């Protein structure tokens, strides 16, 4: 006869000196009747379900404690045309002088808008560009990889294009921006979606993709003509290098001006913030490639490499 609590509820069983729930006891004794392979499978399932539950809870907690991250980093509202007054937030960096200046849309990685993007926007502004970094997750930002995966996997792809178009229009409407000298640079998630947007907006003067998924055929590129800079790491396991090579070959086949560089001894997301760029190495070299590229395509002359 089992032990009963004050209200008649069943108390936990004592197993090996520990109190455990009755359901766990049933699973335990059921497993003793199984063959060894079946017990291993059951153990893997239990561990997997437990791990998934922990990750799910951690994502919820991160979302709850990180609600103000984007608001702290942004300084501008961008109106979305035809969206009944909807706006997205963005960070804008402006160079000294009246202009008109060339301009850049900077698209964040799969973590969302973070301090490292702000630092890179400021660096480009110091070279004479008006830079806008839109918040494509519309209020979400994280440093926790499981949540970043969820954010990037569930974002509305069509809305991303709409938001980037709003950022482009916002730049074009500014008196201090040279309307025909607007480029885009995207990192990781931003590289992928920035390239998608470039395929749809022939008015972009240049596009730079930092370790983002790219088109791999002439058919995917279509009538694309915008000059391209591609930056990738040889040790990047998320972006297969054979796909990068097909991308470069397809650009060559349709006659698009491009430069695709694969950096040895680095993996994904190696160009982080201002400190990593200042330290040199692959991050510094890749950043200087970007500066020269935008200098040629947007400003008319290469930037002086620091």
Spell out the blueprint of helices and strands:
Layout: E1 13-15, E2 18-20, H1 22-32, H2 36-65, H3 69-73, E3 76-79, E4 87-93, E5 101-107, H4 115-126, E6 130-134, H5 145-154, H6 157-172, E7 177-187, H7 189-200, E8 206-210, H8 218-221, E9 228-233, H9 241-253, E10 258-263, H10 274-278, H11 281-299
Parallel strand pairs: 5-6, 5-7, 7-8, 8-9, 9-10
Antiparallel strand pairs: 1-2, 3-4, 4-6
Question: How would you describe this protein?
Answer:
- The structure is a single chain.
- This protein has 2 domains: 13-64; 68-299, Rossmann fold, CATH 3.40.50.1820.
- The N and C termini lie far apart (81 Å).
- Helices cover 45% and strands 19% of the residues.
- The protein has an 8-stranded mixed beta sheet with strand order 3-4-6-5-7-8-9-10, sandwiched between helices.
- The protein is α/β, with parallel strands linked by helices.
Architecture of the largest domain, according to CATH?
Answer: 3-Layer(aba) Sandwich
CATH superfamily of the largest domain: Alpha/Beta hydrolase fold, catalytic domain
Structurally, the number of domains stands at 2
* N-to-C span: 81 Å
Explain briefly what this protein structure is.
By secondary structure, the chain is an alpha/beta fold.
């Amino acid at each position: 006869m089992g032990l009963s609590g004050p209200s008649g509820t069943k108390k936990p069983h004592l197993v090996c000196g520990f109190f455990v729930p009755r359901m766990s006891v049933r699973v335990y004794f059921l497993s003793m009747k199984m063959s060894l392979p079946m017990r291993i499978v059951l153990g893997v399932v239990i561990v997997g379900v437990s791990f998934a539950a922990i990750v799910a809870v951690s994502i919820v907690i991160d979302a709850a404690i990180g609600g103000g991250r984007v608001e702290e980093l942004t300084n501008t509202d961008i109106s979305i045309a035809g969206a009944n007054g909807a706006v997205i937030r963005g960070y804008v960096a402006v160079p000294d002088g009246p202009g008109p200046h060339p301009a850049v849309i900077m698209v964040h990685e799969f973590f969302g808008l973070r301090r490292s993007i702000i630092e890179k926007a400021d660096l480009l502004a110091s070279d004479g560009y008006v830079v806008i970094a839109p918040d494509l997750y519309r209020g979400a930002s994280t440093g926790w990889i499981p949540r970043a995966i969820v954010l990037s996997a569930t974002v509305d792809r069509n809305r991303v294009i709409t938001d980037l178009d709003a950022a482009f229009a916002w730049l074009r409407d500014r008196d201090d921006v040279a309307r025909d000298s607007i480029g885009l640079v995207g990192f990781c998630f931003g590289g992928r979606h920035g390239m998608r947007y470039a395929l749809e907006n022939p008015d972009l003067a240049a596009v730079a993709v930092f370790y983002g998924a790219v088109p791999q055929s002439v058919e995917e590129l279509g009538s694309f003509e915008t000059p391209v800079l591609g930056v990738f790491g040889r040790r990047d396991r998320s972006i297969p290098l054979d796909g990068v090579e097909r991308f470069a070959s397809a650009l060559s086949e349709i006659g698009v001006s491009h430069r695709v560089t694969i950096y040895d001894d680095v993996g994904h997301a190696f160009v982080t913030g201002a400190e990593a760029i200042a330290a040199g190495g692959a991050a510094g070299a890749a950043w200087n490639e970007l500066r020269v590229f935008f200098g040629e395509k947007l400003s008319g002359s290469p930037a002086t490499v620091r």
